[in-house]
Design brief:
flat, single chain, alpha+beta, 3 strands, 86 residues
């Protein structure tokens, strides 16, 4: 599982992946399933996946609160993992 997985924003130290999800991006079931597999691989490798939709971007206060909570949780999780396991 060492392949490189591309995401919109990657905070590698925190293993936090942020992506904008667009309905138009998934033009068929094959591309949708491939995207879900890519996300599953991220999560299996210890990453937190944070999807962002257009309506979420329109509600900036809620989006920022969610991102901040996720960021803090990732920071706390990283402190709990010994350096040798990172």
């Amino acid at each position: 599982m060492g392949e490189k997985i591309v995401v919109d924003v990657a905070m590698e130290q925190l293993k936090l992946a942020i992506e904008v999800q667009l309905v138009a991006h998934h033009t068929d079931p094959v591309s949708f399933c491939a995207d879900q597999l890519r996300i599953a691989r991220l999560v299996a490798n210890g990453w937190t996946y944070f999807p962002v939709t257009v309506p979420m971007m329109e509600d900036e206060a809620t989006l920022m609160a969610l991102l901040q909570a996720t960021f803090v949780r990732c920071q706390l999780e990283q402190r709990l993992v010994p350096d040798a396991e990172r």
